[in-house]
Amino acid sequence: MANWKDAVRRVLYPAYEARVVRRLPPDRLPKHVGVMLDGNRRWAKAVGAETAHGYRAGAANIEPLLGWCEEVGVEVVTLWLLSTDNLNRPADQLEGLLGIIEGAVSALAEQGRWRLHPVGSLDLLPASTARNLKAAEESTRHVDGLLVNVAVGYGGRREIADAVRSLLQEHAGKGTSIEELAETLDVEHIAEHLYTKGQPDPDLVIRTSGEQRLGGFLLWQSAQSEFYFCEAYWPDFRRVDFLRAVRAYAERERRFGS
Question: Is 61 assigned a catalytic role?
Answer without folding.
Answer: no
